[in-house]
Each structure stands twice: as structure tokens, then as C-alpha cells.
Design brief:
Order of helices and strands: HHHEEHEE
Distance between the termini: 10 Å
Shape: rod-shaped
Largest sheet: 4 strands, mixed
Number of helices: 4
Oligomer: single chain
Radius of gyration: 40 Å
Number of strands: 4
Helix content: over 70%
CATH class of the largest domain: Mainly Alpha
CATH architecture of the largest domain: Orthogonal Bundle
């Protein structure tokens, strides 16, 4: 196989490895993001419960103030009853007393309902706090694991870059310029194998003359359809 073609195949594989680091890092960081999101969601739930509790407590205080007002009103009605002079006044006062008592009952029921609701919320908050504690431990453990993985990836990346720089120093400049020109649009499919007489970049069948040149591997041959650099894999039967 042509020396320069071998170099371009190797360079292409190195560039693929370098480009793969981005998605690898994203995948690793996503692990931490998912755990942190769970922690944030739990904290948000807890804060929402606390706000609901505060709102309920405010309503309880309002009902308690209303109860005090209603109690005073009943006392006032009781005092008025001694000064009643007609049946009509008695009925009106009785109706006012009944309505006040209904309001008292309702206020007491609401206070009881809101207190029970807050008891449930207290239990829910306690459960969430336990979950937050567990998830916080997982977050810390995950952070350590992610840090180790990122260090390993960075080490590998540095090794790959060093390998690339060493290879670049050996490649003919014109050949390298041509490779980069194709890579601008072809990306990681700049150098592709030929299988079953087809370019594995555009998947179009190449003519016999081009195919014969690819098999010989004496020169750098490009696909007549898409312009990618072609080669025959040494492990295939076609080689």
C-alpha cells in the first residue's frame, strides 16, 4: 500500500478518536447532571411543601381571628336577646345566631382540615429530606467517579494528540492539505474503504478502472462520485 495512503488512513482513524472525545465527555457529564437534577427536583418538592404549609398556617390564623370575631358576635346576640320586644325581633336574632354558629362550625372544620393537611406535609417533608440525604451521598460519589473518568479521558486525549502530532510531522504537506480540504465537508468519512466495489462514503458503485487503482494502492485514489479518499481494507478478501 502507498506510504501516504497508509498515513492518511491512520490520520483519519486518529481524527475519529479525537472527535469521539466530545460525545464521551458529554455522556460522562450527563451521569452527574441526571443525579443532580434528581437532587434539585427533591429540593424543589420540599420547598413547595414548605410554602404550602406556610399558606395553610396563614389560613389557620385567619380562621382563628374569624372565630374570635364570631364568638364576640354570639356574645352580642346573647345580650340582645334580653332586650327583645317582639316575635319578629326574636326570629331575626335567632336567624343571625344560627348563621353565626354555622360560620363557627365551618371555621373550626377548616382549621382542623388545614392542621391535618400540614401534619401530612410534615411527614412528606421528612420523607423527602431522607431522600435528599441519600441522593446527596450519590451526588458526591458520582462527582468523584466523574472526575476520575474525565481525568482518564483527558489523559487518553493528550496521548492521541501527541500521536497525531508525531504523524503530522511525517506526512507530505501537499497530501495533508488535500486531506484537510476533503475533511472540511466529509468530516470523519474523509478516508473510507471500498467494499463490494462501492465507496463506503457515498455508497455508490465505482467503475472498474478506479476499482483496480484502489486495489493496487499505489496512488491516492478518490471516489469519482463524492471525492472521498478510497482504500481497500487489508483484512478483506478484496485485498
Amino acid at each position: 500500500m502507498n506510504k501516504y495512503l497508509k498515513q492518511l488512513i491512520e490520520l483519519s482513524e486518529i481524527d475519529k478518536e479525537i472527535d469521539a472525545f466530545g460525545p464521551k465527555i458529554e455522556t460522562v457529564e450527563k451521569e452527574l447532571k441526571n443525579v443532580v437534577k434528581k437532587q434539585d427536583d427533591l429540593i424543589a418538592k420540599k420547598e413547595s411543601c414548605i410554602e404550602d404549609k406556610k399558606e395553610n398556617e396563614l389560613k389557620i390564623r385567619q380562621h382563628e381571628l374569624h372565630l374570635a370575631e364570631l364568638s364576640e358576635k354570639l356574645n352580642s346576640i346573647s345580650k340582645k336577646s334580653s332586650a327583645i320586644k317582639s316575635e319578629k325581633e326574636m326570629k331575626a336574632l335567632q336567624l343571625e345566631e344560627d348563621i353565626t354558629k354555622e360560620q363557627l362550625d365551618f371555621a373550626n372544620e377548616e382549621i382542623e382540615r388545614l392542621q391535618k393537611a400540614n401534619e401530612i406535609k410534615n411527614e412528606f417533608i421528612a420523607d423527602i429530606e431522607e431522600e435528599i440525604e441519600e441522593v446527596s451521598k450519590i451526588v458526591e460519589e458520582t462527582k468523584k467517579e466523574i472526575e476520575a473518568k474525565l481525568k482518564e479521558l483527558e489523559k487518553n486525549r493528550e496521548e492521541i494528540y501527541a500521536k497525531r502530532e508525531k504523524l503530522l510531522s511525517k506526512i507530505n504537506q501537499k497530501i495533508l492539505e488535500f486531506y484537510h480540504k476533503v475533511r472540511k465537508w466529509a468530516g470523519n468519512t474523509t478516508v473510507v474503504p471500498v467494499k463490494k466495489q462501492a465507496c463506503y462514503g457515498c455508497y455508490m458503485k465505482i467503475n472498474d478502472k478506479t476499482y483496480a487503482s484502489v486495489i493496487k494502492s499505489e496512488d491516492i485514489v478518490t471516489c469519482p462520485h463524492c471525492g472521498r479518499i478510497l482504500y481497500i481494507e487489508e483484512t478483506t478478501e478484496e485485498s
